[in-house]
Amino acid sequence: MVEPANTVGIPLNHTALLKDELDIVIPTIRNLDFLEMWRPFLQPYHLIIVQDGDPSKTIAVPEGFDYELYNRNDINRILGPKASCISFKDSACRCFGYMVSKKKYIFTIDDDCFVAKDPAGKAVNALEQHIKNLLCPSSPFFFNTLYDPYREGADFVRGYPFSLREGVSTAVSHGLWLNIPDYDAPTQLVKPKERNTRYVDAVMTIPKGTLFPMCGMNLAFDRDLIGPAMYFGLMGDGQPIGRYDDMWAGWCVKVICDHLGLGVKTGLPYIYHSKASNPFVNLKKEYKGIFWQEDIIPFFQSAKLSKEAVTVQQCYIELSKMVKEKLSAIDPYFDKLADAMVTWIEAWDELNPATKA
Amino acid sequence: MFSGYSCRYFGYLVSKKKYIVSIDDDCVPAKDPKGVLVDAVSQHVTNLENPATPLFFNTLYDPYCEGADFVRGYPFSLRSGVPCAASCGLWLNLADLDAPTQALKTEQRNTSYVDAVMTVPLKAMLPISGINIAFNRELVGPALVPALRIAGEGKVRWETLEDVWCGMCLKHISDHLGYGVKTGLPYVWRNERGDAVESLRKKWEGMKLMEKSVPFFEALKLPESAVSVEDCVVELAKAVKEQLGSDDPAFTQAADAMVKWVQLWNSVNSSG
Description:
heterodimer, A: alpha/beta, 33% helix, B: 272 residues, alpha+beta, globular, UDP-arabinopyranose mutase (chain B), cell wall biogenesis/degradation (chain B), golgi apparatus (chain B)
């Protein structure tokens, strides 16, 4: 049985790393009470709240947090017709927050994620760990059996080629969850009582060429390096599928990171996932995805981007063309999705004009 | 072929069993964070008996262990996994670091007990350590090749690379044949003999050989026609000789040893 950490009495983190370079993006449809528990670790940072659902509802933000909040009306106003690429009635809408942010780094977390305890009972500052992960190189070209070689007390093992020890820039830090695991609906239905109590004390780089299921519950990334690829797709209201937003983004992101020589890490930090969503509702949302992913995965596994695709946007547009060409046959949804991918990039570039030469 | 650390391959050769577990003689059972002694053999067998999942990464690591499963987004068609060919364990106390690293960090000890087993993904290369390893002899026996000897190979682990080369071959062949290689638990507690700084005095050939090996294995494609482990080893040896032979005599010797090893394996293990 795992419990969340009790963070009452933990002093505010005044030496918060990257305080002015990181935004925390939180999608919500309910309330933000969970932030109270995160206060010691997150209060120094700026929040971008993306309010899903009924825009006339007021979401109360706990005192003392610096934030900007966007509801559906704001999204429509800011993006105009391009707002069609942002999902409604699905936490996929969070990617709007990535788009409007002006910071280099993003940390995104769900509103049912609490602070976890490590095996020693200490409260885990998840954001701090994500930052460490992002600021340290990744090692995608050769697997280190002692996991993260840059961590205190670890190193590259015997036989690890010296020429690969400098690593590459880390684009994504994918954290995990104690308590309610991120299972799909069928697994949830079969194992409703299963809880993740195993604290695996490691961070590792996912090797080049390997795909993974990226969960958006506890995720951080370098917006400058990979931001435009973090589109969470068309989900929720009016769409035939849900709960595949982060998965879709993760497959696109990994293909692009592999192409551009960027690293993706997974492992620590853990958060405590408190709420299990209704598996019957989930099944309805995921149903098509379960079949479609059988075709989607081989698509991404064999996707080859051209040498000319050197920016994330170029890679993403190329990918969208491939989606239209190869996946539309599965369902017209992919045709719409491919178009939305292009719209997303257009919107991204509009809101984030290139300032570098 | 069977001198130094490679003497163990003789044991692999003559065994009649399905599984092999091999541990260096300076390793003793480790304790887990609860203070319980780790039965490394039992964990290795569990790893070998359960499927591996090299085709897609499971973020909760081993999906077949108690309390875990495949996560959302993991394709259902890949959930039965593939046979596990090898189980690579780890080391507490003295980790398997090379001489320069050990010499630089003389006081460093590995105290991190990472409670996970995971499959090393398809095409990912890794340095397999012979210090704490187990494999399915029936499945991939001949692929563990006692082949690469570096000049001035010595009596301490820092002065060898036989297991790392063997591991590169094993992983490549496993990938080709659709088997999996796991890494992680079990831990053993390692006390190495020897002086890392002393080892540095010897010209460390291993470094150069590894640098050449990486692009070779990365680009290597075994022919479709290689369907048995023995075929794979022979094809691999051919490629090594052709592509790496001119770089260093150690590679030519390794290629020859690999061919000889397969012949030896077949003659010792022929039915009857």
